[in-house]
Design a protein that fits this description.
Blueprint lengths: L4 H5 L1 E2 L3 E2 L4 H11 L3 E5 L5 E6 H8 L17 H8 L18 E2 L4 H11 L3 E6 L2 E7 H19 L1
Parallel strand pairs: 2-3, 5-6
Antiparallel strand pairs: 1-7, 3-4, 6-7
């Protein structure tokens, strides 16, 4: 019997600290090649997710997410960045997605698939006794799932 998909695609990571500054955290996310990283509090417990979406929330003023259209906002991205460059020195704790799901190591592939389907998250942090140490990305999970599906189709033909 093949290994679980989770074991095949789980990536060990060093979580962010909720007190990390936006500029530091976004560089760490980029360095990993992941869409986001989990963040932990001072006790090492899961505090939330910081990634692509959360960075954009830090960079763009809160009202942008409330607008039906951003046509009235400057089209020049450099101007927008210049107006909010100070967000780089803010702690990521204010921007974390806190309702994200995290799972313990013994989660099954089927349970993980259900989480990806129902929560529409890009990553799921994996923890041991509450301490986050790895993530599974939806993309990696999908790639492995498709590979196994195609392999079974090929066996049938």
């Amino acid at each position: 019997m093949p290994d679980s998909i989770v074991n095949e695609v789980m990536r060990e990571i060093e979580p962010l600290d909720a007190t990390d500054k936006v500029a530091v955290a976004v560089r760490r996310v980029l360095d990993t090649g992941l869409p986001a990283l989990p963040a932990v509090d001072e006790k090492g417990q899961f505090a939330g997710i910081f990634g692509e979406r959360e960075f954009m929330a830090a960079l763009f003023p809160g009202y942008v997410s409330e607008l039906a259209s951003a046509r009235m906002v400057s089209r020049n991205m450099d101007d927008a960045i210049d107006r909010r460059i100070e967000c780089g020195g803010q702690e990521i704790g204010a921007y974390l997605t806190k309702d994200a799901v995290t799972v313990e190591d013994d989660y099954s592939d089927t349970q993980l698939a259900e989480l990806f389907l129902h929560h529409r998250v890009l990553i799921i942090p994996i923890a041991t006794e509450g301490k986050v140490h790895a993530v599974v990305t939806r993309h990696d999970f999908f790639q492995e799932l498709v590979a196994r599906f195609v392999s079974r189709l090929d066996e049938e033909s």
